[in-house]
Structures are given as structure tokens and as C-alpha cells.
């Protein structure tokens, strides 16, 4: 279905705090939101927060500009990345530091948040295999919250948290992926 996707507004957070404020705004104003990236590669019926073009309750939160954080922890062989960082940028940065990724999908334009939330994969027999989300050690997600919590909160989930596996390959339903550590 090649229908045009409409939204009331779009915001481009550059920090985790701005991402939390965007989710808070959506919850406080009872809007339907969709997390999007600079590149879109999906079926509109799945990516649009609403299908009725007369409905102005849709809101896009774009991670296009939330892409500056790549922190390499050489001692623990780990990296923490903002969700809007594109895969090619991550590959280049880890290579500059003498490291490589265990697995990666073929298309390098995908964002880290996108590759994690959609279950994109490459091929690898090493470790946990070629699925990129299987390499995640910790994921930070911005989720809706109560009024007393400011309508949005930041959850840091590791493998011991009951929502950890749900946050991976969540298609953005659980919340907005902010940072990924793997």
C-alpha cells in the first residue's frame, strides 16, 4: 500500500534528554508517535502512526540528528552508541580504534536503533551469531510514564531485566531506543 504518511509534526532530538522530552510531549498530548530515521525502508501501513489523513494526532520523532555518541570501552571490548548513529559511521569508528563488529547487516545506511529494533542481521558463526540484536549488552529506552514521572522516563535494561529481550526487536512499540551498548 503506497499511501502517503501524514504527521502533525516532527522533532529532531540531539540528546537523550531531548528524546525524553519528545516522548513526554507525545504522552502528555495523547498523540500517536512513530520513531523514524533519516532513511526509511518499511511499509507505510506499518510505519505511519495513523492511517486517517484527517486525524492530526500523529507525531514523528526522528533520530536523524541524534547521532553524535560513539563511546568505545577498549578495556571491556564494548561500545555505547546513540540510536541515530548509522552503521557505516560505527564501523569506521571502531576500526579507527583497532576493533571490528561481530556481525552487521549488508546495508550500512541503517541506524543502530533501526538495526536493533527490526532484528536486522548479517551472517556470523562467532559468538551469538549474525543477528545484531543478539550482541546487545545493555539498551536504554525512553518509555511513556505517569504524570508524576514527567510523562516519560529512561530505562536502562541489561540481560537481567525482564524487559531486555522485549526492548530488542520491539519495532519501536515499547519506546524509543536511546542508546545501545554491545
The ordered string of helix (H) and strand (E) elements is: EHEHEEEHHEEHE
Q: Give the number of helices.
A: 5
Q: Determine the mean pLDDT.
A: 82
CATH architecture assignment name of the largest domain: 2-Layer Sandwich
Strand-residue proportion: 15-25%
**C-alpha termini separation:** 36 Å
In total, the number of strands is 8
> Do you know the CATH topology of the largest domain?
Uridine Diphospho-n-acetylenolpyruvylglucosamine Reductase, domain 3
Rg, alpha carbons: 16 Å
Bulk shape: globular
The largest sheet is: 5 strands, antiparallel
Strand order of the largest sheet: 4-5-8-6-7
- Integer tally of domains: 2
Catalytic activity: L-gulono-1,4-lactone + O2 = L-ascorbate + H2O2 + H(+)
EC number: 1.1.3.8
Keywords: Ascorbate biosynthesis, FAD, Flavoprotein, Oxidoreductase, Signal
GO biological process, one term: L-ascorbic acid biosynthetic process
Concise account of the structure shown:
This protein is an alpha/beta fold and 182 residues long. The chain is built from 5 helices and 8 strands; from the N terminus they run E-H-E-H-E-E-E-H-H-E-E-H-E.
Task: Please tag this protein with its features.
single chain, 182 residues, alpha/beta, Uridine Diphospho-n-acetylenolpyruvylglucosamine Reductase, domain 3, 2 domains, 5-stranded antiparallel β-sheet, 3-stranded parallel β-sheet, 8 strands, globular, L-gulonolactone oxidase activity, L-gulonolactone oxidase, FAD-bd_PCMH-like_sf, Oxid_FAD_bind_N
Describe the secondary structure blueprint for this structure.
Layout: E1 9-11, H1 16-28, E2 32-36, H2 44-47, E3 58-62, E4 70-73, E5 78-82, H3 87-96, H4 112-118, E6 138-144, E7 152-158, H5 164-167, E8 176-181
Parallel strand pairs: 1-3, 2-3
Antiparallel strand pairs: 4-5, 5-8, 6-7, 6-8
EC number: 1.1.3.8
InterPro entries: FAD-bd_PCMH, FAD-bd_PCMH-like_sf, FAD-bd_PCMH_sub2, FAD-linked_Oxidoreductases_BP, Oxid_FAD_bind_N
Cofactor: FAD
Amino acid at each position: 500500500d503506497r499511501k502517503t504518511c501524514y504527521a502533525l509534526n516532527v522533532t529532531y532530538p540531539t540528546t537523550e534528554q531531548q528524546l525524553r522530552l519528545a516522548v513526554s510531549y507525545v504522552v502528555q498530548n495523547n498523540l500517536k508517535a512513530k520513531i523514524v530515521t533519516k532513511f526509511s525502508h518499511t511499509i507505510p501501513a506499518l510505519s505511519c502512526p495513523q492511517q486517517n489523513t484527517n486525524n492530526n494526532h500523529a507525531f514523528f520523532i526522528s533520530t536523524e540528528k541524534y547521532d553524535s555518541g560513539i563511546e568505545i570501552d577498549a578495556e571491556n571490548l564494548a561500545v555505547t552508541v546513540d540510536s541515530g548513529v548509522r552503521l557505516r559511521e560505527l564501523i569506521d569508528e571502531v576500526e579507527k580504534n583497532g576493533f571490528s563488529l561481530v556481525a552487521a547487516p549488508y546495508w550500512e545506511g541503517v541506524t543502530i536503533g533501526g538495526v536493533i529494533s527490526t532484528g536486522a542481521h548479517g551472517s556470523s558463526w562467532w559468538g551469538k551469531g549474525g543477528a545484531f540484536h543478539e550482541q546487545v549488552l545493555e539498551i536504554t529506552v525512553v518509555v511513556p510514564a505517569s504524570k508524576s514521572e514527567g510523562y516519560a522516563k529512561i530505562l536502562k535494561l541489561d540481560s537481567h531485566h525482564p524487559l531486555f529481550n522485549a526492548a530488542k526487536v520491539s519495532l519501536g512499540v515499547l519506546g524509543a531506543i536511546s542508546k545501545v551498548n554491545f
